[in-house]
Amino acid sequence: xxxxxxxxxxxxxxxxxxxxxxxxxxxxxxxxxxxxxxxxxxxxxxxxxxxxxxxxxxxxxxxxxxxxxxxxxxxxxxxxxxxxxxxxxxxxxxxxxxxxxxxxxxxxxxxxxxxxxxxxxxxxxxxxxxxxxxxxxxxxxxxxxxxxxxxxxxxxxxxxxxxxxxxxxxxxxxxxxxxxxxxxxxxxxxxxxxxxxxxxxxxxxxxxxxxxxxxxxxxxxxxxxxxxxxxxxxxxxxxxxxxxxxx
Length: 247
Description:
Blueprint: E1 2-14, H1 21-30, H2 46-49, H3 54-68, E2 76-80, H4 86-97, H5 104-108, H6 114-122, E3 129-132, H7 138-152, E4 157-164, E5 183-201, H8 214-223, E6 228-232, E7 236-242
Parallel strand pairs: 2-3, 2-4
Antiparallel strand pairs: 1-5, 4-5, 5-7, 6-7
Helix pairs in contact: 3-6
């Protein structure tokens, strides 16, 4: 079994219709249907916002919200997403298949590190950043990356942003976990032991595990102020222990 530890100094989750811990708590308790299809993007500069995908907007808005609450700048960024800008990539592929000229702007924003780059531009913050994908456990791998950085830099702060959206057609036939239209979870982390995460490789029948959004599960537990919870996927068993947070 492997283990990491860190402090969650603040968290913020965003999805259409869910923008506060109270809204997320209601969703957890009642499975409330979103009352709106839009979400706040007011922190993103207007000229930049017009060209961004919804996925990038929700990730960057979440990151900018957390940045404005901090007295000191972040030292490191970790952005994680299972699928990334796949909808934009699919649009580009369809343009190519139809012998149309692909948009250079769309191409430049179709890479996996689009959102992290846009955040550094929008915030005018030249911060080192890592963008990663780790299948269904992308958030957990982002936390491992952040914890490794904090181990080497215990006085620093790390911003972790995990975000995703349902698969676009024609890949939507492979979508197995129901989720809000799109979502982002932001975590401000520092060195400490307020939260621990242990994991070990699954040894049982992996076919019994039904894929689900691990990020939404973590949001649910944070919104409910849970102290301990477990998450299973096809590869690992994840055990969380959380002593509390400030928001």
